[in-house]
Amino acid sequence: MVIDKATAIAGDSHLFTWTVLADAVVRNLPREVFGELLQTEASVALQAARHLATQANQARADYLTAATDSAQRRVLQRLRSLSDRSGTVRLPDGQAGLADELGLTRVTVSRALHQLIDDRQISMRGRTIRLS
Prior knowledge:
- It is a single chain.
- The protein is mainly alpha-helical.
- The protein folds into 2 domains: 2-66, no CATH class; 70-131, Arc Repressor Mutant, subunit A (Orthogonal Bundle), CATH 1.10.10.
- 61% of the residues lie in helices and 8% in strands.
- The protein is elongated, with a radius of gyration of 18 Å.
């Protein structure tokens, strides 16, 4: 939804793909209607601005992490953010998907995962990872 809000505000068009890991509801609002609501409803404009600011802050934090943290720390941080309440992470696209998401090679992710296993921070069975 973030891309849609930013794109609608910028007036650009785009193609997109969503990967949903849980049940989701997708709603469609024509750009013109959204633009009108932004101009006439202060609460809509405020919510959109807050949402975009949150996304910008997260993008900045992700950039700083990518620029300063080791691959192992980045992998562990991402696994923590993806884990459910029981500390379990299912990687639908496997190590290659995690590597693409983090801007690392699959080999680097594999090494980081094996080091995390050796350090007993995670256990792994197939595409399922459990945080310790």
